[in-house]
Structure formats: structure tokens, C-alpha cells
Amino acid sequence: MVDIKITRASVLKEKPASSTLVFGKSMTDHMFIADYDEGQGWHDPRIVPYGPLQIDPAAKVLHYAEEIFEGLKAYRTADGTIQLFRPLDNIARMNKSAERLCLPQIPEELALAGITELVKLERDWVPHEEGTSLYIRPFMIGTDPALGVHSSHHVQYIVIVCPVGAYYPEGLAPVKIYVESEDVRAVKGGTGMAKTGGNYAASLRAGDRAEKQGYSQVLWLDGVHRKYIEEVGAMNVMFKVNGKILTPDLNGSVLDGITRRSCIQLLKDWGYEVEERRISYEELFQAAEDGTLEEAWGTGTAAVVSPIGELAMEGKKVTISGNQIGELTQKLYDNLTGIQWGRLADPHNWIMKL
Amino acid sequence: MVDIKITRASVLKEKPASSTLVFGKSMTDHMFIADYDEGQGWHDPRIVPYGPLQIDPAAKVLHYAEEIFEGLKAYRTADGTIQLFRPLDNIARMNKSAERLCLPQIPEELALAGITELVKLERDWVPHEEGTSLYIRPFMIGTDPALGVHSSHHVQYIVIVCPVGAYYPEGLAPVKIYVESEDVRAVKGGTGMAKTGGNYAASLRAGDRAEKQGYSQVLWLDGVHRKYIEEVGAMNVMFKVNGKILTPDLNGSVLDGITRRSCIQLLKDWGYEVEERRISYEELFQAAEDGTLEEAWGTGTAAVVSPIGELAMEGKKVTISGNQIGELTQKLYDNLTGIQWGRLADPHNWIMKL
């Protein structure tokens, strides 16, 4: 039992209408913080009014990106229950990221209490409308005020939450993807398997460039051969080729996505063969030419499942499933969101009710 | 002319004795800040009392490592002049890093004024003792309070300074280096050529591991072939092999170090042939075996020149120049520090007096 000290905000914010929500912008009234000091361990778990953190200008997080994060959601079901999707998977992954970044391990009980107690306090912020949810962002930062390049002795674990609108208010819509051949997001031996700031910092320029050319996201190639597909934007990626499902294997530079994991499970439940392996962009474009590339989609917490309608690369462009949502993509989306919002049974015990 | 508003600290800190200084821990009384907002550009350059920054918990820098930095020093000469070493090179590099990280370009005049005006205000903090200096850390952070993975519209450029002791109070001492074969610091297409947090975050684990085994730093291999030498710790690296100087070329994942650049210039002035090219660890160990690896050293702002006395890798270990400081290493150190502290002439106009 984690003893959390709660200090309530004296003035509560007005809750924005769900239709006006922009992803990640409308933070709620409170946040959870716990401190870690070497020798002392984790201490002072507390919920306080949401507001600026006081960070020393020499703090490691501002110079050496000693930072990791997670993303998950709280869903409101038809009967008003608030529930989480696989939160322990997020906590386990945060501890894997922590190992890579030399941040301390956080006990599951503390990390989870930070999430559940904050969401309970902010339960009125979990929106009611179809497809909406409360996005949860746990993160950990190294805050030692010292410029030496060393891991931090002082660390904070913080949880912030914000209501998010339906990712596809008009229904699932296919996106156009550009295959990035210049910038690299991560490489084996680097931090690609960790959910850490540096991977995202490396991705900003290509994302901006793709957007300017009218594409939603980039398809990332591996940093070694510049040939094998890794992720799409900040999501994992899957392809249906000739009835079989292909997805890049967890080779050390690909994030072990929780939506990815859930999709693989559902696909196997439905009898699909799922191959986790190297997939080159040549193989993909060849399959598109042969007519065997039937569907493609990204998987991630924000969008759940995001159909890919077009893939482009210097001089090449292919349309996937006629730039329509593929049948299996739609089925995956319907089933995962069905479980998340409590409309469908939860055969794998993925749901944690609050 | 940059119009900087100065707010002085009401109480000044006691200045620590130079002999007690730990690198990067004793910040001075003031800091420089300028804000950038998209559409408005840079504004409100100011010097304020040193203290915590107010950072929104959803700020990009805390989640997506949108952060770059520089490092340079102010030196006190025998006649009391305070001078900087190649500060415009640092500013030019910061703008290159900014391009990679989707941060705004900063005008040279503003970036330089932030450095020079702060150092002038803090001139009593520039220590007097042999080998000491004032370390200057300009940095830029993206502060948009929004969790979408996009580049920031609100940015801060901040300069903080701290006195630093002699890097080698007992004189130049050779260090032991471990060749890292698991973790990778950066890869071509990533952010290795930029001075940005993510590269350093990726380096922490290997650095910790090396230290635990009694080594000062790791020698980084490239992320593609895991074979070619890139940097040593957070420094560039050079080798004297059979009378010739070898150093890794700026291949996209190696930092374009200002001390590296200065060493190459001096070496060429002295008639040395300097080869900037791929160097494999096999070539290096072979040269050590053949007796042609005469000297090895790291180059960087903090240590200036750091002699390498031992190189180790799984199962292999070689001693370089009898674990003594090589003659050329010492000459480089003496000449660079001679120019920096104003004891020697400055033939290349590297010095900017304040």
C-alpha cells in the first residue's frame, strides 16, 4: 500500500469540450510526483496541483536527456467504470528503459499507484464521448544539478494526464507514409528499444519534412543497412502480405509496443500466421507490385491501429488496399477498442478496472 | 548591439576554493536567458539570478529531448585579461545542432552577447590558479507544453557558467580506455554530429560499466560495422602511428570538435601529416602489436588533451607509449593551453578578449 499525500488544487480548471481537444495539450488539475535519491530510494509519493516543475538549469535531463516515458490510457465504459489497458506492461517497459538509461528501477506498486490514484482523483476528466479517453503520461527524469556526464542520483517519477479526443473523429482514415532514407531514428546498440527522449528528438526533422510534403508520418529504416523497416512515425508497423502478417522483429532498435503485442495476440487468436522478422522496403514495394501487399497499418497507444493507404519513396509510390481501410485493419481496430472501452469480452485479462 | 536587461542577485554566493571544485557543480550567481516564440523570433534577452527554471511537466525537452548544448571556457591570463577560445565556432556548431533537432537558428550576435555579458558580470568567478577556468554552458531547450511529437514553437537559449579546477591537478596523466562493443553512442543519419542530449543519454550505461571495471572512458565504435573508431568518452580521439596522425573523419556520427579542429591545425603547422579517415580497432591493435602505435589522446574542451595509456577490449589489452604521456601529446597540450591562457602567441586568431 503506497501512502500518497494529496494536496488538492484550490481552483479547478474548466474541462474543455471533447470536440475541441488537441492531443496532449489539456492537462488536468493535478499530477503525481515521487522522488528518488541514491541511498534513500523512492520517497515522498504525492499528488499536487498541476504546475511548473522547478528544475535546476544544470539538471541532467536538460543536457544529457536522461529521461524515459510511457503512454497509456484510461477508458470510460458504458456503465461508467474507468479502466486501464495493460498498465503493468507499461511499468515493466519503463523499468527496461530505465536500465538502458541508468535510471533507477521503480517498484511496480509505486509506479502503478501513481497512475491509478491520479486517475481516480481526476475521474471526472475521463471524457464520455465515443472514442475519447484520458491519456496517461508517466515519465522519469534525472535531475542532478551537475554538468558531468554521469547518471543521476536524484530522479523524479511524474505522472500527468490529459483528456484526448477520438483519434479519428470521422472514422478510421488511411494515412500516407513517406519512406525516410536520410535520417535514422535509432540503431541496434543505441536506445531504440527504450522509450526515451533521444529517439524522438532524432525523429523530429524527418517528421517535419514528411508533413511539409503532405505525408502523415515516415517509415523508418534500420540504421545499419538502411533497408529494413523498423517503425512508422512513433508506432510499430504491420503488413498483411498474401494472407500472412509480417512485422519487424524486436531486434534491439524497435520499440516493444504494447499495442503491437496485443495485435499479435489477437491475430494469432484468429488463426493468422504472424512472422516477426526483417522486412526490407524492396520486399514491400515488390509485394505491392505483385498485388500481394493486402493491408498495412501502424499500431500505438494514441491511434490504436492506423491504416496506411499510401507508401512513397524517392521516385516510387504505391497505394495499399485501394487507399481504403483493409478488412483486417478494421477488425483489429474494432476488437482492440472494443476491449479497451469494455464493449467486448477481455479474454487475455488486459483490463484493470479502477 | 543586444540590449540585455540585468537583474542582479541580492545575495552573492561564497566562491569555492579552486582546489575543491568538482567539474560542473559550482554554478555562479547569474544566468542568461533569451526566449524564442514562433512568429515573434528571439526576445527578452536578460541576465537574472541563477535559480530553478519553471518548466511545464509536458514540455518537449522532458519527453522528446529537444535540447542542444555547447561547452567552452573563459580563461584568465597573467595580466588579468579574461578571454574566450573560438566562441564563434561554438555558436556556429550550435546552429548546426539546431538544424538537426528542429530548433530555431540563433543569431550569432545574440548567442555571443549571452556568453560575453554573463562572463563579464561574473568575472570575479573566473579563477586565478594555474589550469583553472570558467566553464561556459550555453544550451537551448524546446519548452512547448504539449505531448504531440512535433518540434517546439517556444524555445529558450540559456547560458550558465561555473568555475572549474585544473583537469589534471597533478599534471597530465594517461587514462585507461575500454573499447565498447555492446552499446552504440550514435549512428550516421542519427544525431551523432549534433551536440544533443540523446547522444549522451545513450552513452551513460557504457560509461558506468567502464568505470566499474577501472577504466576512465570508453572508446566508441561505429553503429554500422561495429568496427571503426568514432570517439572516446565525450571527446574526439587521435592516434600517432608511425609518425603520422590518424583521427576518425567527420562521417556524420562524429562530433566536429573545436579542440579536434584546433589540434589538427597545430599538427599541420608543425608539419605532421594528419589523416582523417576510418580507423578500425583491428588496425589500432595491430599497430600496437607492431610497435607503430606511438601515442593516443582524446581532445575536448574540458580536458583539452587527454593522453591514453591503455586500451582494452574483450581478451586484449595494449599499453601505449609505456603508459606515459607521449611527447607530441604533451606538446599539443602545452601549446593549446598556452594559447588559451595567453602564455603563447595566437597565430590563428582563436582568442577573443573580453
UniProtKB/TrEMBL annotation, chains A, B:
Cite a single Pfam family from the UniProt record: Aminotran_4
Residues found modified as N6-(pyridoxal phosphate)lysine: K195
Q: Does the keyword Amino-acid biosynthesis apply?
A: yes
Q: Pathway membership of this protein?
A: Amino-acid biosynthesis; L-valine biosynthesis; L-valine from pyruvate: step 4/4; Amino-acid biosynthesis; L-isoleucine biosynthesis; L-isoleucine from 2-oxobutanoate: step 4/4; Amino-acid biosynthesis; L-leucine biosynthesis; L-leucine from 3-methyl-2-oxobutanoate: step 4/4
Q: Provide a GO biological process annotation.
A: isoleucine biosynthetic process
Instruction: Please write the reaction equations for the catalytic activity of this protein.
Output: L-valine + 2-oxoglutarate = 3-methyl-2-oxobutanoate + L-glutamate; L-isoleucine + 2-oxoglutarate = (S)-3-methyl-2-oxopentanoate + L-glutamate; L-leucine + 2-oxoglutarate = 4-methyl-2-oxopentanoate + L-glutamate
UniProt enzyme class? transferase
The record's annotation in InterPro entries points to: Aminotrans_IV, Aminotransferase-like, B_amino_transII, BCAT-like_C, BCAT-like_N, BCAT_family
Name this protein carries in UniProt: branched-chain-amino-acid transaminase
